[in-house]
C-alpha cells in the first residue's frame, strides 16, 4: 500500500511556512515516522496559532484606525508631490519666461512670413479700424508694420491687393503733423507719401495707410476709424 501525506501550512502575513512531505511504502515505516511527523506538525500548528493571534490583534485595532493611517500616508504623498513639483520648477533649465517666449515664437512662425529682411503678416481679407488692426497685430505676436526703407516696401509690394489700403504703424494722433511710429515710440523716420500727402483732409486724418491706388504702394494719412486691411510685422523669430 502506497500513500503520500503532504501537508503544507502557509502563513501569508508573517512568513511562517512549513511543509512536510513524506512518502511511505510500508505500514512499518509509517509507524516509525509517526513520532517525527507529530512533532513537525506540532511545530507548524503552534506557529500558525501565533500567526492567528497576531491577525486578531491587527483586526482588533479596527478598520477606522487603518483608514486613518491610509489618509495620513496619502497626505504625506500629496505633500511630497507638491514639493517635488516646486523643486522641479526651481531647477528647470527653462524658467516660465522662456516657456512663454517659446509659445510666442511658435505663434509667430505660424502667422508671419519672411519677406525681404523682415517677418510680415499681410491681412487682405478682414478690414479693421487702425486701433483694431493695432490690437490684431499684437494678438498675432507682432505689431503694425514699421517701414524703415524702400526695400521694406518693395518686399511686400507683390503681396498687396490693388486699389486697397493697408494700415501701418505711423500716426500723428498725439500731435498734428508729428508722425510717430507706435512700434518704436519714436518719430517716424521713413516716409513715402503719395502725391499731396499728408494733407490732414477735414482736419481729422491721423492714421497712416499704405495704399495701392497709384500702383506702387505709397503712404496716405486718413481717418483712424476707417476700416482697412493691415500689415503686421514681427521682429522676433
Ligand atoms: C519728433 O518730431 C517732433 C515734430 O515733428 C519734434 O518736435 C520732436 O523734437 C521730435 N522728437 C525727437 C526725439 O526727435
Notes on the structure:
With 237 residues, this protein is α+β, with helices and mostly antiparallel strands. The protein folds into two domains: 3-86, no CATH class; 101-234, Mannose-Binding Protein A, Chain A (Roll). Helices cover 41% and strands 25% of the residues. The protein has helices spanning 27-60, 63-91, 96-111, 130-140, 150-157; strands spanning 3-10, 17-24, 113-115, 118-128, 143-144, 165-171, 180-181, 186-187, 207-211, 218-222, 228-234. The strands form two sheets. Strands 3, 4, 5, 6, 7, 8, 9, 10 and 11 form a nine-stranded mixed sheet that branches. A two-stranded antiparallel sheet has the order 1-2. Strand 7 (180-181) and strand 8 form a beta hairpin. The longest helix has 34 residues, at 27-60. It is rod-shaped, with a radius of gyration of 43 Å. The relative contact order is 0.12. The site of 2-acetamido-2-deoxy-beta-D-glucopyranose has 2 residues, from loops.
Secondary structure layout plus pairing:
Elements: E1 3-10, E2 17-24, H1 27-60, H2 63-91, H3 96-111, E3 113-115, E4 118-128, H4 130-140, E5 143-144, H5 150-157, E6 165-171, E7 180-181, E8 186-187, E9 207-211, E10 218-222, E11 228-234
Parallel strand pairs: 6-11
Antiparallel strand pairs: 1-2, 3-4, 4-11, 5-11, 6-7, 6-9, 7-8, 9-10
Bound molecules: 2-acetamido-2-deoxy-beta-D-glucopyranose.
Residues 178, 187 line the site of 2-acetamido-2-deoxy-beta-D-glucopyranose.
Index terms:
single chain, 237 residues, alpha+beta, Mannose-Binding Protein A, Chain A, 2 domains, nine-stranded mixed beta sheet, two-stranded antiparallel ribbon, 5 helices, 41% helix, rod-shaped, disordered N terminus, binds 2-acetamido-2-deoxy-beta-D-glucopyranose, C-type lectin domain-containing protein, signal, C-type_lectin-like/link_sf, C-type_lectin/snaclec_domain
